[in-house]
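Dear colleagues,

As part of the handover before I leave the project, I'm documenting each prediction I ran so the next person doesn't have to rerun anything. This entry is a single chain, and its sequence is reproduced below.
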Amino acid sequence: MSIFEKFSDRSGPTPMVPVALLSVAFLLAIGFQTMQLMRERSNLTTVFTGQESAVQQTVKLRNAVDSFAGDTAKLAQAGDPQAKQVVDSLRSQNITLRPPAAPAAAPAIAPTR
């Protein structure tokens, strides 16, 4: 008697149906999770793309405000009384205005012969 004949003579229930059902349920669950994650990624990409223009506008506005604040601080250092008043008022609110940093001078390059 071979091993296959020995197991084929069993008359009890086989585990094939429950294992097949568990396998199908597992694959369906994995498929569902994959679809959910793909949908969420698509939504996040859409939100990110929608916020790019707002971020660019915010950067432009921040640069304009920094430039204005720097000009005001420069006027205050030059002795303008209204600019000094604005700088002092902002300093009392713990906001410090600094004049823009002077651009670094390019190093002199000696001519080569």
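The first helix runs from residue 3 to 8. The two ends are 100 Å apart (CA to CA).

All the best with the project,
I.
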